[in-house]
Amino acid sequence: MIRNQETLDQLLHMIQQFVKNELMPREHEVAEKDEMPQDIIDQMKALGLFGLTIPEEYGGLGLTMEEELYVAFEIGRTSPAFRSIFGTNNGIGSSGIIIDGTEEQKQKYLPRYASGEIIGSFCLTEPESGSDAASLKTTAVKDGDFYILNGTKRYITNAPLASTYTVMARTNPEIKGAGGISAFVVDRNTSGISLGKKDKKMGQHGTYTCDVIFENCRVPASALIGGVEGIGFKTAMKVLDKGRLHISAVSVGAAERMLDDALRYAVERKQFGQ
Questions:
Q1: Dist CA 164 CA 212 (whole Å)
Q2: What is the pTM of this model?
Q3: Which of 99, 192, 218, 230 has its CA 20 to 30 Å from the CA of residue 76?
Q4: pLDDT of 202-227, one tens digit each?
């Protein structure tokens, strides 16, 4: 749903200009250095890109799904590293709290995601649990007013930069499938969290993924998203359903950029005197 076409057009024009004038000229720099320039991050914060989908009452722009897709078309026309730095705050890093979080959790985290003060991350995949996410082995054992988390999460986007992790863990070992899984929002500075080495990738330099390891990580019961056990897998699937739409639109933008570049080169290229 598009709420106001004029406002959306203004936003898209602003993003188009930012992509063309600021991001495209820096693509090679990001790829060669494998890092995001701080001045670019600061501009993204100033433009509100970290809070595109965060509800307005928590400091974001509150884009609808349709509006978000139009933005993704434009962002997809440049290096995916630029989108990645603010993408988790608008998607998998915040969506679990937006969709199923308590009001206290929303008040605590969403304004800081929207401003770019902190970066959120999403911990679902494990060394032996990828597509079959319901078979995850990370555990969360209740201990009074706390949960003790143990397990390893793999290929976690923005993990080295993140201040929070949305973690899916099994709270009921007697339920082997999805029903035994709960979701938690865990602060990075919690004791018992360590990170693996940054993954080396063939492409997408400037984006970071790595393992997130939980060893007797003690988190308060208030970290349980929604305050209810056993709904974490459903939360994760809602988050991923939304994210897949976004990534589809980003892919369309990337395809358009490649076609434009290829066409321009085909027209300009000279061989055999013509």
A1: 11
A2: 0.91
A3: 99
A4: 888 999 999 999 999 999 999 999 99
